[in-house]
# Entry
Amino acid sequence: MIPSVAVPSTRVPLRLSKNLHASSLVVPEKHVVSTGCGILGRIYGSTRYTDGLRRQTLTMMRSSMDGEEFGEDEQEDEDEDEFATYVFDGDELVEGENDPSMRLYLDSADIQEMKKWADTGMFYGCTTNPTLLKRSGVHCTLPSIRQLTRHAFELDIQELQLQAWGDTVAEMYSCALDLAELDTRVVVKVPITMEGIQTAKRLVNDGVPVTFTAVYSVHQVITALSVGAHYVAPYFGRMGDAGKDAVSDVAAMQGIIDMSTECSGEVRLLVASIRSADEIAQLATQGCNTFTISPEVAQQLVSDPLTEAATNLFDEHAREMGSIGQ
# Structure
């Protein structure tokens, strides 16, 4: 029998045994609680409060309860369990698809480009940094970024990633908190430097989702995982420019994340500095599923000369045969 506790309002993935009545499982408020579910083990939850709103993520890990051992019959049952992913839909826990699905971000601070591409439904969110702000004429000040954030969330996107800045940990942390308080859907980016790592740890302890950016080496993924980042952003194109085997290194980064049992799908490799749609396709074959791309690369994703030629032929034949409206 699964105990009843508080139910979250957001849809979050949860992996459970199909042999259990998942509809009766609800989310605990505590960071770590024992569910009393035997072989299912513990639910690990983290709660973030910003302006009275709660952000909660969960991970189900199959492990024995503290001080308990499985009997032989229980162990055999565990091995035969079939697991599926569930999400909360309002107050109900329903079976859903695995969370690690393809996720695209638009790498731009241009609100017109954001609007254009948000209307396609292709993009989960947008990513920015001080360089992109400068390129779009957005001042790197809290009032300007607040306005950008407001406009961005008037569009059909789920997340906006904003980069913190500062010469010291104290300055970067203060800036990061200001950005996080703009909206509960903001993810704060920090460079994977000593100052950025210390800032990220404080943010993670506060329940603020973090992206480590400017990642160039495979070992930096280990650092990011140890701190508890939500996203790790390697600069794919710039890695190649620096003489690295970017495809191999990014594939290795993805492999480390996939093998980390502590992640359980919560951490994503957010591949940045993509120069072409073909690079996205190539990395997707290596298991990568999260990319941030420029509007120019986004255009490549929806363009192909053969598709355009076929479409023009369809239109021509439709006109010849008396298309609707004529």
Notes: The two ends are 65 Å apart (CA to CA). Confidence is low (pLDDT under 50) at residues 1-91, 94-98. The longest strand covers residues 42-50.
